[in-house]
Task: inverse folding
């Protein structure tokens, strides 16, 4: 199940409500959603890949994922955070095969090493099927990032069965986004991982855990499993579910959660700052996807959706993004605040 909803605020003006990050081709290598689907080739049959999106983005998702069966793409009737979305996916899979194993993946992450990704997922699936726990994937931190959730890893898990290339650890607890000082402590301790939002479990295990720790969601998933009209059941029940994240609703309470550390490259491409790392350099630290003429200008991020030539004169540390109907000029230190701009824009630019 690929989660492909969300709004398009951090990448305005390139992103819009109907075209958020996962539907953008930011690096001229295909959209992040297309890359996510292609990354599963050889691991998951196309007929077993489900996508959960929303009504505003449904047409675009269907266009990008035209190789999947149409019934495998489902639009939520309302936004209810990640726990109801995951429960919807669990119910859909349970209706097809109540003994299946399942992977939940975000649609908006950049991962280039497909072979390493699939190796981790195979070991995660093997762990979930033989252990009866909920498996998460963690990213080894490269810096003390305060804007990610963290997983505190405990001792290596004791498992039956063959030895795995990526051995899981017990999860001690989940930690929400820390302040900068806490993030430094997490990094120094060496036993914390970034929470990548990837979850692997067997349907019997996750159904039992939902029933035990999130009964509203457990009952919803069970209704979907037994429903003769899945769309009608979702339409009547989903909008009334309590909005809550899957971390709070289930993972922080579950009987056993394991964590496998990723051996693949990973970038959540969370802002224009993240995108800049993958762009070409020009002049004194300027990063761009288009032709620029920088004069006495340094450390700027320049992105043109129309291959426009952009000149910079005497400016430093800016983000400049140009599209057909809008231009953003922002202090790069305030990249995370672009959503404030979006909140005050006219509707035709959302």
Result:
């Amino acid at each position: 199940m690929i989660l492909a909803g969300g709004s398009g605020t951090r990448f305005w003006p390139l992103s819009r409500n109907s075209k958020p990050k996962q539907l953008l081709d930011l690096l001229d290598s295909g959209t992040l959603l297309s890359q996510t689907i292609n990354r599963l080739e050889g691991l998951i049959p196309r007929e077993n890949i489900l996508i959960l999106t929303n009504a505003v983005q449904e047409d675009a998702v269907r266009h990008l994922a035209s190789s999947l069966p149409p019934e495998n793409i489902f639009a939520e009737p309302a936004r209810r955070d990640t726990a109801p979305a995951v429960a919807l996916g669990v119910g859909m899979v349970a209706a097809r095969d109540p003994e299946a194993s399942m992977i939940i993946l975000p649609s908006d992450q950049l991962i280039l090493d497909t072979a390493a990704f699939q190796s981790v997922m195979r070991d995660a699936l093997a762990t979930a099927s033989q252990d009866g726990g909920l498996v998460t994937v963690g990213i080894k931190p490269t810096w003390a990032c305060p804007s990610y959730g963290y997983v505190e890893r405990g001792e290596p898990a004791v498992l039956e069965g063959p030895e795995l290339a990526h051995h899981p650890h017990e999860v001690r607890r989940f930690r929400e986004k820390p302040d900068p000082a806490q993030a430094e402590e997490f990094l120094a301790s060496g036993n914390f991982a970034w929470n990548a939002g990837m979850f692997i479990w067997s349907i019997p295990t996750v159904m039992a855990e939902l029933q035990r720790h999130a009964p509203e969601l457990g009952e919803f998933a069970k209704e979907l499993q037994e429903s003769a009209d899945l769309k009608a059941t979702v339409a009547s029940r989903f909008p009334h579910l309590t909005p809550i994240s899957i971390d709070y609703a289930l993972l922080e309470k579950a009987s056993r959660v394991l964590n496998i550390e990723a051996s693949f490259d990973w970038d959540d491409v969370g802002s224009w700052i993240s995108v800049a790392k993958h762009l070409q350099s020009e002049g004194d630290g300027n990063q761009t996807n288009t032709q620029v003429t920088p004069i006495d200008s340094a450390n700027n991020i320049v992105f043109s959706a129309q291959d426009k030539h952009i000149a910079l004169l005497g400016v430093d540390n800016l983000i400049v993004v140009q599209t057909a109907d809008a231009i953003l000029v922002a202090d790069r230190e305030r990249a995370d605040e672009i959503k404030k701009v979006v909140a005050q824009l006219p509707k035709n630019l959302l």
In short: The chain has a mean pLDDT of 95. The radius of gyration is 21 Å. The chain has two domains: 2-261, 272-349. Residues 79 and 226 are 23 Å apart (CA to CA).
